[in-house]
Amino acid sequence: MSSKQKTFLIVMLLLFITVSLATVKNNDIEDKVNRYISNLSEPFSGTILLAIGDDILLNKGYGMANYSYDIPNTADTKFLIGSTTKHFTAILILQMVEKGLVNLDDSIEKYFPDGPKEKTSKITIRHLLLHQSGIPQCYSGFKDYLTVHSKLFHTHKEYLRLIWNSELRHEPGKGSTYSTPGYYLLGIILEKVSNKSYAELLKENILKPLKMENTFVDNNLSIHKNMATGYQKGINGLVLARKNEQSNHFAAGDLISTSKDLYLFQRCLNYKSDRLMSPRYMKLLLEAQDQGGAFIGSKYKQFYHDNKRHLEIMGLGTSTSFGFRNRMTRFINEDACCIVMSNIETDNTMSNEMFAFLSDILLEKLNIDFRFTKNKKKIDDYHTFKLPEESQKEYTGNLNA
What we know:
The chain is of the alpha+beta class. It contains 12 helices and 13 strands.
């Protein structure tokens, strides 16, 4: 055997050992998560993804995508991602700002000349992005929304009427009110300045560049392969979730995706990335603004090692749709993430405690000497929609009904 052949065999052996050790370690991670899931007081149904850089440590489905037909959740199962859609819309707006088609401090009167000027002249695009417009959340601020309008298809003109007829919670820029309708307005603005549909913009400017092949705009009509059925808790067990008319969410909550696609999405959220926009505008997207808050997600620093080091953590929200929940946490400088998707709307297992446990797995893998569970720290939570208490009984259902 020649020396070149010996060298080649040694290199291949070392490569095999390295891959084998990585596989064993990833199997250990899967075993840890499996034990955690099996010990929960309530069953978890969904998909969990853990990743560091290019290495996906775990991407696995738990429970059932459809309980009627015993179809299990897998790594490829699709879920509604609810308000996580807003992050995509924020990026599209910043892209239009970079192209000079939109100004953050433009009043929306420019785009809605037929709207009430006492509102449109005071609300800016920046206010909409930061939830500072004062426009109320549809569930609580629109008359008869849950009982009537949430079940009906609305044209843009019809939905705009609901927005203009609602009362502002505060003066624009003088407070903070989480507002799905505010992001609905941003979707209309995007279509007006680009002369393209929201779906076209999304595909051209985000999905295609990031190779997200399993993310779509929902319309309650299309059939999506591997799509999970949405559930919620009934009196005696799970029941089918109430069907929601997706036209009412549009650019604020109308996307379907998978854990792998969301992994691809969150990786572009770093200060040096230029895959979706220049680093200058990516920095603008990620950094806190003068008025408080950020255009995307919620960020904070977790100090450790006697406050000499810190983790920069981005919470990309606990978003809830009818029948689904979704949550992402990104460790920006470590390029690490945990993503949990569920097809049970009222899934109490998706808690801060779960994310502390999953984050600790990442920190151990990264050899970072800090543990959220041991320090009783909780991963930052973001917006969670909760059905008003007076309306919960109407939609809880009964398994035996």
